[in-house]
Amino acid sequence: MNKTKVLIVDDSALIRSVMNEIIRKQPDMEVVGVAPDPIVARELIKQTNPDVLTLDVEMPRMDGLDFLEKLMRLRPMPVVMVSSLTERGSEITLRALELGAVDFVTKPKLSIQSGMLEYAELITDKIRAAARARVKARSVPHPEHKSSAEGLPLIRNPLTSSEKLIIIGASTGGTEAIKDFLMQMPSDCPGILITQHMPEGFTRSFAKRLDSLCRITVKEAEGNERVLPGHAFIAPGHSHLLLARSGANYVTQLDQGPPVNRHRPSVDVLFESAARCAGKNAVGVILTGMGKDGAAGMLTMRNAGAYNFAQDEASCVVFGMPREAIAVGAAHEVGSLQALPGMVLGHLAAQGSRALRV
Q: At 249, is the secondary structure helix, strand, or coil?
């Protein structure tokens, strides 16, 4: 069996030691080098040709983002960021994902050594997913404001009912996939609910970043908000997001119940609530991500009358969640990330047109 070769880059000797210990215990992985900064890492990459790089966000001698930008331009490879649980750390991490990092893990707040060992399963799962990921260098513009969406083709949204909803689930690679999807949404699109696997603290920064880039309003869900056209709600990292009814209106609902499929927020929880509350008025979309979260919930949506879309393998960073949804027969159509927004709105427009003729 060929082992996944991992290079660890972190300025903390303790983190390097703990990560080394975690990875060396995995039968399918090996540590081919450790580096205290990007200058040393650059030489080790040439010498060891790693399959996956773990990279600290904030480091001396060269900033982690500067290094990542150069790396993805000159030698694109799977990178998992190791981030701090701070507002600044979350913003830098989101920027790293834009630059092409596959995923990230967060350093524990308290005892780093014991905390990192508890995170061993999460860290190694993410390294395994990164090793299988499709890595593409991304060109990222620095200005961030609403007009950023103006260069994209405007997809019109004719004849759709305010009763319609778009329900989205994603994991690994999903922050960029969701951004690409939402940036093509017109300001009068149906209300959107989103679950992206992401820790608490990062979802607020993610929502703010999307809000600055999209024509629609994007926010982290707080619960009991009316779901209106032109608005997208992102599940906070600490709670499941559900769709609920309040009289004639759809509203958001948060639940801090146990993780489902090892995740809170869970895509299955959101999809199953959409099946219960919206039925045929919902359109499900499952995007890139590792694991199977969302497949069963999307099938429940289909059985309740919803129409569902899955991202295709070629455009996914990790074709795990969409593959599982397709395998159980939950998706009606499969399309590339670039095509999905038009496919979704085209379906809704056709439904609206049929309703008018009836």
A: strand
Catalytic residue among 171, 205, 239, 273: 171
What confidence score (pLDDT) does residue 140 get?
A: 52
Structural domain containing residue 106 = 4-132
Q: What are the structure tokens assigned to 113, written together?
A: 């050594």
Q: Is the pLDDT of residue 87 over 50?
A: yes
Q: From the candidates 10, 211, 268, 293, which is the catalytic residue? A: 293
Confirm whether 117 is domain-assigned.
Answer: yes
**Residues in Cβ contact with 118 at an 8 Å cutoff, skipping those fewer than 6 apart:** 108
Judge if 101 and 189 occupy the same domain: no
Instruction: Verify whether residue 171 is a known catalytic residue.
Output: yes
Distance of alpha carbon 308 from alpha carbon 340, whole angstroms: 11
Please confirm, yes or no, whether 37 is among the known catalytic residues.
Answer: no
**Which is catalytic among the residues 103, 197, 266, 268?**
197
180 and 116 share one domain? no
Residue 356 has pLDDT above 50, yes or no: no
Q: How many domains does the chain have?
A: 2
Question: Which domain CATH number covers 162?
Answer: 3.40.50.180
Note the pLDDT tens digit of each residue in 19-33.
999 999 999 999 999
**Alpha carbons 316 and 173: distance in angstroms, whole number:** 7
Q: Is 197 considered catalytic here?
A: yes
Task: Quote the percentage of the chain above a pLDDT of 90.
Answer: 75
